[in-house]
Specification:
three-stranded antiparallel β-sheet, 100 residues, 44% helix, 4 helices
Length: 100
Amino acid sequence: MGVDPCAVPPSAWYCYLLLCADGTFYAGITTDVARRLAQHNRGAASRCTRARRPVRLVYAEPHPDRSSATRRERELKALPRTAKAALARQAAGAAAFQGT
């Protein structure tokens, strides 16, 4: 399923996690999740995701500033794959619970 980028609450910055077509995860930050997801799927956002399209948003969290979003991005990138998958499952469960 994934997270609906339109359902992500407004914030200055976001840290997000994508699931690529080859099963890998990609972490990044942005000020506009829907716009950034579209860029990734067009192949215009990252060399890493360009070769792994399509990508799907599986997790996003708001942050008050770029600094905290960047710190969280580093944390996400350092997580093992199983922990990233658990975050994605948790987000999917929360989205289903909210009726989205």
